[in-house]
Amino acid sequence: MMPTGKPKIVIVGSGFGGLAAAKALHGSAADVTLIDRTNHHLFQPLLYQVATAALSPADIATANRVLLRGSPNVRVLMAEATGVDASAREVLLADGRRLAYDYLILATGAAYSFFGNDAWRPHARVLKSLDDALAIRAALLDAFERAEQSNDPAEVRKLLTFAIVGGGPTGVEMAGTIAELARTTLARDFTYIDPRQARVVLCEAGGRLLAAFDPALSAYADEALEALGVEVRLGKAVQEIDANGLTVGDDRIDAGAVLWCAGTQARPAARWLGVEAARNGAVKVRPDCSVPGHPEVFAIGDVASYDSGSGHPLPGLAPVAKQQGAYVGRLLAARIAGRAEPSAFRYRDYGTMAVIGRSRAVAVLAGLKLKGFLAWLAWSLVHLMLMVDFRSRLSVYINWSWAWFTYGRGARLLMGEPGRAASDP
Amino acid sequence: MMPTGKPKIVIVGSGFGGLAAAKALHGSAADVTLIDRTNHHLFQPLLYQVATAALSPADIATANRVLLRGSPNVRVLMAEATGVDASAREVLLADGRRLAYDYLILATGAAYSFFGNDAWRPHARVLKSLDDALAIRAALLDAFERAEQSNDPAEVRKLLTFAIVGGGPTGVEMAGTIAELARTTLARDFTYIDPRQARVVLCEAGGRLLAAFDPALSAYADEALEALGVEVRLGKAVQEIDANGLTVGDDRIDAGAVLWCAGTQARPAARWLGVEAARNGAVKVRPDCSVPGHPEVFAIGDVASYDSGSGHPLPGLAPVAKQQGAYVGRLLAARIAGRAEPSAFRYRDYGTMAVIGRSRAVAVLAGLKLKGFLAWLAWSLVHLMLMVDFRSRLSVYINWSWAWFTYGRGARLLMGEPGRAASDP
Fold it and tell me: Choosing a second label site near B251 at 20 to 30 A (CA), which of A8, A94, B152, B341?
């Protein structure tokens, strides 16, 4: 490490939380190291658009070194953390090295969980990384190409059936966008198949879509998806996922691709530290986001379970991670400088939204419930504003405008191996 | 096939030649099938910019179905051709199917050749497909990340040495762009290494770079590359490429990545047909681009060797392929319609160019020799004009403007597995 004698802060994870913490520590009297397995910050809320060929990876991802170029006290390290030795105050890296810290900020996020059904994993695709998104894109486009070449109607029907498990925002977004891809972008492009016949099935075990939203908005999302041709199946749990499709309740659905958007599990930070975890594996943190028994270790974002006093932990949303990261960064900067520390973290809920398709969304903004075009407009503006750099913003804006007016998809590229498995362990 | 009773034309390859042929057959009284292993047309001249993180795959590739959407008599088939049964008039596909034709246009292009040294292949990267470009990009970015984490000066020096074999346009473009990447884009982004110390070595066995150009332009390219910090080594052949670098003449160069831009070999169409091939494996074609002994079979672009009367075959350039494709398309449309056929193919040489880096290029345009900024401007304009669709043109223009003013690289993303081998067999 940099032998400056300054306190060493290690941040693990360059998602919304880790990046916000690093930015808040800009110019502080600390040597900061930001570790991530990848070399980039990923704007996760738009990852589904890379998976559905509307955007390119470079539109929603920016190199961490570019984002932190102006902060000489922040070092970027592309490496995988595999554990923490809390008594030695060291982070363990996959290549055997150890990284000493005075303060540690864990922002490792969550991964998709199959809730114990790991046999399903090889047959279902998840959407967490850029590699996942490109694999889903290749699988979707490949299904249409293979269907075009098949003489067997049953096989065509299977190939053009896309099943999405999980009716949260990601599931709703994927279902709506795949239906649009088939019904507009690809509609006129094949000789033997009619892509508009593609079947998109959205399966949600609970009683309604978007359970975190108001029931009226859930009902609107349901209607809007049905209008796009999506089959919405509520109230039945997935029994089985195999190489040929899935079983939902008593119904068998043969499918060309199954996307798993159903539930996440925090990455194993609680186990690393040997501390109490919530049901989803997240570290139960104190009001200042520190880990009980380890006042020098903090957990933020999806890997933390923060009780806001309502009895419910804060949701796994980008704004929560971002605000917690900025808070912990400010807190440590103050502590190191000997200034007064901020009081307990408080989440400011500016709203939540989910997009359903071209021109449709639902949103709760400042207590106001919005749906339809106005919600979609709000969603577009908010997401453009949230992007971390001007270049991405410009590129996404142009791609969106293009797609909106032409119904085209600029990134309709089949690359690599459509059969390869999801990268997320 | 489409049972219309119309003549069946099969085009193998959706590069510049195959696409031009398909477009020229738009609206003709033929059922046309365009086969390609990928789903897209690739603008190869800018592939090196994807490899060096300046552009995204979607900027230079467009789905064949989108490009040919307006031609109902042209069918697109994503499949790999593995041979031709000329007596049965059928194309053999990798999955065992056979595709009948009345006329066949072979536009399968060329692949990089190691001239019998196939043991070098696992250790050198080539640049033919989008997957190749992303693998090179990952290898380049990964070398800097690994160097940043190394404590061994010899290893750092090796990791930051990039050797390029072959002083033709692609080698010159890659060498100049990698040098710029290290000296501008990445220069300020690391803590322990100075990317400006990266060593870029361009090895050419012949006596000068860009042998197809005027010697004065070759000399300029040499100077311009040296000014960018590239080591140019002329007149010494590569003796060996292994996992740790290469041997050129008597010199050993340990390198983090070796890029092979040295020579190509036509894909095996001549062997498929059992006809005479030129030294590079290309089919020796007649003045109308047809294959001797097979008047219903045509070969165009890099897979064809066309004697323009000068004793030299036409060079393996995009404009040659494009003009031959358009010519054969027009010829067949006329033949089928019973109209007068065009006379022998004639290549119109509008010029050739090679870019050396930001603001520098060499060009021969309408007999005029250009170098420096003017040549670069001409290069930029010509390449923007040549792109097949407006969307790509807009996107490339914006990315270039951004990079030009900021020295940034929008696509600095490490994805997938930097270690994976090149896709080109």
Answer: B152
Give the range among A38-47, A58-67, B409-418 with minimum mean pLDDT.
B409-418
Residues of B with a known catalytic role = 173
Residue B55 included in any domain: no
Q: Which residues of A touch B77 (CB under 8 A)?
A: 148-149
Domain end marker among B310, B337, B364: B337
Instruction: Please check the confidence at residue A80 and state whether its pLDDT lies above 60.
Output: yes
Least confident of B152-161, B254-263, B369-378: B369-378
Under DSSP, the state recorded for A52 is T
Residues B218 and B304 in one domain: no
Chain-chain contact of A63 with B413 (C-beta, under 8 angstroms): yes
Residues A246 and A136 in one domain: yes
* Domain of residue A180, residue span: 118-262
Is A204 catalytic? The answer is no
Write the pLDDT tens digit of every residue in B60-89: 999 999 999 899 999 999 999 999 999 999
| pTM given for the model | 0.89
